[in-house]
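Example (one chain per record):
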Amino acid sequence: MGRPFGRRSLRWRREEARSKRPRHAFCWGDARRFTVDGDGRWAYTLTINPSKDVYADEPYLSIRWDDLHQHVHTEWRAFANSSELRSGLLKGIRAIKEHRAAAYVSDARKVKVIVHEDQKWIKETWMPLAIQAGLKRLAFVTAPTGLGRLTIEDVAGLVDDHEGLHSRTFDSMAAARQWAVSGGK
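Predicted structure:
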C-alpha cells in the first residue's frame, strides 16, 4: 500500500476513489439538485444554476443578455477562427430574437482581425438576420490603437445605417452602453 502519508499514497487513493465514483452527465437548463453517494463514506449535493440568459461562454467569446440595461452583451476574449466567429454571431442572433433586443453592445477590445470573407458574411448574412430579429443599434468597444481597432471600425462602417441598423465605436463600455440603450442619442 505504500507510505501512509506519502505523495504516492495520496495519489493512489484519489485515483482509486475516482474510479469508484458513479459518473453523471450534467444537464443544462433548469437547476438540478442531486446527491452522489460514494462508498457510503461521503455524499455531497451539487446545485447547478446556469443562467438562461447566457448564450455562449467560450474561451474566445461570451454572449449574454444584460437584463439590467436591456441589451445583448458580447465580449470577444481571444482570437476566433472563421467558424467560431460565425457560430458566435449566430448565437447573438438567437439572443436578439429571444429578447426582442433593439441594442447590442460588443466588447471587441481583444479582436485583432476579421478577414474580408467574414466581413462580407457579416454584411450579407448576419446584418439582415439581425435587422429581421429587431436590432436597431450596435455599439462596439474598441482597443485604443492597433489593427483590431481598424478592423472593428471597418465592420462598424459596413453596418452603419443599413436598413435602420445604426452602429458606432466607443472607447469605453459605459459610453457604448449609454448610446445603445438611449436609442442612439
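Caption: Residues 82-99 form the longest helix (18 residues).
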